[in-house]
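Q: I'm writing up a methods section and want to include an example of the input and output format. Could you take the sequence below and give the corresponding predicted structure tokens, formatted cleanly so I can copy it straight into the document?
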Amino acid sequence: MTERSGVNLTEMEGAYGNMVKLRLFVWNDYCTDYSSGLAFAIARDEKEARKLIEKERGMPVYLWGDLSVYPLTERHAEEVSGGV
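A: Here is the clean output for your methods example:
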């Protein structure tokens, strides 16, 4: 269990006291123009993750790219190099 100040970071309290698992959603080749983009969100499901990203972006996403989903119970790293 991942904890910070006594808070479990892999679970979130649901509306009725049930625990909801959170996952990491990562889109590669996100909104590609001249180079590949990357988007990620920590959410309960893909629908919520997409809403969070569009809210952060401030407009609809025109190209999502490839999705990978990771449980927050394992270590994971992504990296994006710059360039044209």
